[in-house]
């Protein structure tokens, strides 16, 4: 039977299994990231109750009047509330779409880096809405779990390339991870989608690894695999309520010399036969320590030798590219 393009990987055998089992898991990861840049990951140990409670509290914020939310308005890459029309993610790949049909609460690491310029750009304080005081401790607990999971995944990715286990993790001592809570309301909130408009337009992520906790829906996540390489074009992403959806971003693809694909994806608009559908995603964006020089691993692992790039110069350019207005 043909292996799925996006397989499910249970982390528990990786953490406790024998050498042969770990080798098989690493092979599965390598092949999946070559095909589509996506995995489903179970055995992560992050409680479902924590995720559902974050959604419950975040929804209480998103359903406030716009005048209340505007007090926390932020720019793309900042801290706070991104209202409707703030982003058009398709711009990052050159696809001109109308603005994305979503709202976001966006947070990030805020521990100082001991460099005033870097701190000002990447370590600004988070902005926690006073109307939902529970959100801060919930998100802080969740982000602690994400940081642990990210390091486990990066160690697995190093092994999947046949490299040292710390090949990636040694660049994550002071990362600028980001965290978005994305709210995708129905048409009673956003109106009828314009032609070519998405909840999130087609794009690839920008950084190292993205860890997504999502909900199933008709207007949900789709993943693109290239028919020229045996893919099928756009298809609904597989869903498992117990699993995180994990994909790699552009920097990781460059790091591997395009051995792995930066997974192209989009989120469909509310469907015509379920216009009131409402979804919410928790999206953790793993990043490096500022100033990390990302250099393509050489052949035979890597396939393309990119010019080395400063991780955060690259990230800033990408964030600016999706800003509307």
List the helices and strands and how they pair.
Blueprint: E1 8-10, H1 11-16, H2 19-35, E2 38-42, H3 48-62, H4 66-69, E3 80-82, E4 103-108, H5 116-122, H6 135-160, E5 178-184, H7 187-190, E6 200-203, E7 209-213, E8 221-225, E9 233-236, E10 244-248, H8 250-255, E11 265-267, E12 279-285, E13 293-294, E14 309-310, H9 311-321
Parallel strand pairs: 1-2
Antiparallel strand pairs: 2-10, 3-4, 4-5, 5-12, 6-11, 7-10, 7-12, 8-9, 8-11, 13-14
Helix pairs in contact: 2-6, 3-6
Describe the structure in your own words.
A hairpin with a 7-residue loop joins β8 (221-225) and β9 (233-236). The radius of gyration is 19 Å and the shape is globular. By secondary structure, the chain is of the alpha+beta class. The chain has helices at residues 11-16, 19-35, 48-62, 66-69, 116-122, 135-160, 187-190, 250-255, 311-321, and strands at residues 8-10, 38-42, 80-82, 103-108, 178-184, 200-203, 209-213, 221-225, 233-236, 244-248, 265-267, 279-285, 293-294, 309-310.
Strand order of the largest sheet: 1-2-10-7-12-5-4-3
As for the CATH topology, it is Jelly Rolls
Name of the CATH class: Mainly Beta
Radius of gyration: 19 Å
Q: Please tally the β strands and state the result.
A: 14
